Automatic annotation (TrEMBL):
Its EC number is 2.7.8.20. The chain crosses the membrane at residues 12-30, 36-54, 66-83, 112-133, 145-161. InterPro entries: Alkaline_phosphatase_core_sf, OpgB/LTA_synthase_biosynth, Sulfatase_N. It comes from Halomonas cerina. Residues 192-475 form the Sulfatase N-terminal domain. GO terms for molecular function: phosphatidylglycerol-membrane-oligosaccharide glycerophosphotransferase activity. Keywords: Cell membrane, Membrane, Transferase, Transmembrane, Transmembrane helix. Residues 524-547 have a biased composition (Low complexity). It is an enzyme of class 2 (transferase). This is Phosphoglycerol transferase. It is a multi-pass membrane protein. It is found in: Cell membrane. Residues 519-547 are annotated as: Disordered.
Length: 547
């Protein structure tokens, strides 16, 4: 008589195992538990399931064909865990902005593969929960309550609800009252050039040798002849590349257009058209401005932002890759930094030949999460790269930056030039995540200029303070030492972070829409308003902001 084949595990245990693994993965992702904790968490779950006989109740009954109420709440938690695993901290502003600004030209192919795997995992999890609800009446009784708990506890839904509530708050204008439209009251007699180097995700936290060794050492060496600011924190809605550049060039967090945008399902044609930024100010004083980055300028509205704000040349992957000697020397985002910096030198030569002040903004790629993109020059210097260790990429980015500055100086291309070196934002989840999040984190920000005495200074600041600081370092006189929400760190005026605290600023950001309306003026319907003190300052330039 033939034997009937039996599965290695009954369906009950496959379902419980899947739930246990997902629970363990979620906990290790959202907390500081080490990855190996997934196994004991799943084991504890299976032990509890065995003792309570989940999926095999003593009073067994026929399966009931029902669909659990908790499927949608579980799926939404799956989205949140995926975002947390991808980026470390979930920033809904980044999600909304990228959906509206467009994501063509991105280089995150690895995240697409991860998204497919997450989706398959979630489908298996939902199937496991459905099976248990149908065969175990105790799960049917409790899962409706579980669905409500899952919905109420999801931080993503809480954030959406908070932003939705802000729309109906009439008194949501505190941040807007702090905003001082940037005005250049007086220009220096010999306006300096500006070289602004954004180092992708290269936060100053890496300077801690006890945690990260010598990964940041090339920048530490460069900082010995710079004004180095320590304590430049990250406010909400400034924690991704476009938001970081807008915070440091416009003095404001990037509040996505959201419901203010007239055509919700079309890409944005302009980026923060309602405010003047660094490029607008310098272009108005005769500067020739260039943006250069290895990645596509189509991604996240980057090209639109620079073209709309005073930059006559906007050069990304599409424009720069044809100039490479080796057309195949590209990563998934675009050019490696050694190639980008070679082309940067050539562009500065071109700008110098024009005989008028120039500004060049440059965005690197080496330190991009999760694993970085170390250039060929770094591999020749640092040896074999394992493809995971972010500290290898950090050292690469720091060394290439120092080499670029020294190379430009040797060629005489930095005379009467302010060099600004800044991280665009704090890094997202990387291999050194546990060490990074073990203490307070801050951004890289340093200035190198002929008239700036080297020093290190501790501040309570945000990246919004970079705009007025750069303007004053260039010799411009600005209104009240302020521009946007930023305060010059070269002045004695207190920053908003110092005066009110980062927590207060973040709380206000979630409660208000007036500043958001200002940013998107021209795309957004005009809100009924009375002139705020900040607006009065824009018209007359005579009144300081009123808290």
């Amino acid at each position: 008589m033939a034997r009937t084949a039996t599965p290695l595990l009954p369906p009950r245990w496959w379902a419980l195992l899947m739930i246990g693994l997902c629970l363990g993965f979620g906990l290790t992702t959202l907390t500081r538990l080490p990855t190996w904790s997934l196994v004991p968490v799943a084991g504890a779950w299976l032990l509890l399931a065995y003792r309570l006989r989940w999926g095999a109740p003593l009073a067994a009954s026929e399966p009931v064909r029902v669909w659990p109420w908790s499927l949608l709440p579980i799926a939404l938690w799956g989205v949140y865990v995926y975002l947390a695993d991808s980026f470390g901290e979930v920033d809904l502003g980044a999600v909304f902005f990228h959906l509206q600004a467009g994501m063509s030209g991105h280089g995150g192919g690895g995240r697409i593969v991860a998204a497919v795997l997450y989706t398959l995992g979630m489908l298996l999890l939902l199937a496991a929960v459905t099976w248990l609800v149908r065969v175990d009446h105790r799960w049917r009784r409790g899962e409706r309550i579980a669905a409500l708990v899952l919905l109420a506890s999801n931080p993503m839904l809480y954030g959406i609800g908070q932003r939705g509530a802000a729309i109906i708050i009439e008194e949501g204008a505190w941040l807007d009252r702090q905003y001082v439209p940037p005005v250049l009251l007086e220009a220096p007699s010999s306006p300096p050039n500006l070289l602004l180097l954004y180092l992708e995700s290269l936060e100053r936290t890496y300077a801690d040798r006890d945690r990260f060794g010598d990964a940041y050492a090339p920048l530490t060496t460069l900082g010995e002849r710079a004004v180095v600011f320590e304590g430049v924190r990250q406010m909400d809605n400034t924690g991704w590349t476009m938001a970081g550049m807008i915070a440091s060039q416009c003095g404001t967090p990037l509040m996505p257009a959201g419901l203010l945008h007239d055509t919700q399902f079309e890409p944005l044609g302009q980026v923060v058209p309602g405010v003047d930024c660094l490029g607008d100010l310098l272009a108005g004083h005769g500067y020739a401005l260039t943006y250069m980055g290895g990645a596509s300028t189509r991604f996240a509205g980057k090209g639109d932002f620079y073209r709309d704000h005073g930059f006559s040349r906007v050069l990304g992957r599409e424009e720069l890759s044809p100039r490479l000697e080796d057309p195949d020397y590209l990563n998934s985002w675009g050019l490696y930094d050694d190639s980008l910096y070679d082309l940067t030198v050539a562009e500065i030569r071109r700008l110098e030949a024009q005989g008028r002040p120039w500004g060049l903004v440059n965005l690197s790629i080496s330190g991009h999460a999760p694993n970085g993109y170390p250039a060929r020059a770094c591999r020749e210097r640092q040896g074999e790269y394992d493809g995971v260790d972010i500290l290898y990429a950090v050292e690469c980015s720091a060394w290439l930056t120092r080499r670029l500055v020294e190379r430009l100086e040797a060629k005489g291309l930095l005379e009467n030039t302010l060099v600004v070196i800044a991280s665009d934002h704090l890094t997202m989840r990387v291999s050194a995540w546990e060490q990074l999040t073990a203490g307070q984190r801050d951004n890289t920000f340093m200035l190198i200029g002929e008239d700036l005495a080297p020093r290190r200074t501790r501040v309570q600041a945000t990246t919004m303070d970079i705009l007025p600081t750069v303007l004053e370092a260039m010799g411009f006189t600005i209104d009240w030492h302020r521009a946007g929400l930023g305060v010059s760190l070269l002045s004695e005026e207190p920053t908003l972070a110092e005066e009110y605290g980062l927590e207060t600023l973040n709380a206000r950001l979630k409660e208000e829409t007036a500043l958001q309306q200002r940013l998107w003026e021209g795309l957004a319907p005009q809100a009924p308003s009375s002139a705020s003190p900040g607006e009065a300052s824009a018209k007359g330039g005579e009144s300081p902001p009123i808290p």
